[in-house]
Amino acid sequence: MAQLMNRDEFRTALEDAIKGKSANKAPFSVAWASGKLSRDHLARWAENHYHYVGPFADYLAYIYANTPDTYTEAKDFLLQNMYEEELGGDRHTDLLIRFAEACGTTRERVENPDNMSPTTRGLQSWCYAVAMREHPVVAVAALVVGLESQVPSIYRKQTPTLREKYGFTDEEVEFFDLHIVSDEIHGERGYQIVLEHADTVELQQRCLKICEIGAQMRLLYTTALYYDYVAGDLPLTELDMAA
């Protein structure tokens, strides 16, 4: 029978729940980091990614509404995260659209939900469902720890390639530079919220499970981008990945 873990044990367990499921392992990510995608492929990524991360402030707002007032620091973090997404400087979605336009697509195509894949639609729906229905600490574990905390490690592999192999300018890749910094901070604060407020065996176990599911969801989403948009142009054998 599971027992209540101390903070160090629980932190390790949360990290282990994500380990081995990073979206860096997806063929789309491998192709990106090795400079084998075309700008058209990157444009399709942007058109999909907008519909996953675009509503992130909305996801957080649902969690905020469900969070007890006694969780003062957690509510402050959620509010600050929402502010940074939408109001703190350039809106994050506008930076993403700037990158998308540099890849050759348009704002209209990016904003049109008909241009996202079914898997992207599933990830977006899962994020909404978790934010609305789960205990707020479990929802933070899913969306901030399971998803958002992965971003710096993913973009650190991809962003240098955007400059060095694809020739994007600093302004065009600002979306990635910003999230390497901001999501590292957000991810750590998410960990601290979960470590502090998951104070029962049941809550700890629910947080661990949903972290694992969140990591699997992002890996599935990124893998689907390869099969939906890239596989016909770039087989797995060219990525040194087994079919």
UniProtKB/TrEMBL annotation:
GO molecular function annotations of the record: oxidoreductase activity
UniProt keywords, alphabetically: Oxidoreductase
Pfam families: Haem_oxygenas_2 (PF14518)
Matches recorded under InterPro entries: Haem_Oase-like_multi-hlx, PqqC-like
UniProt-recorded name of the protein: Iron-containing redox enzyme family protein
Organism, scientific name: Billgrantia pellis
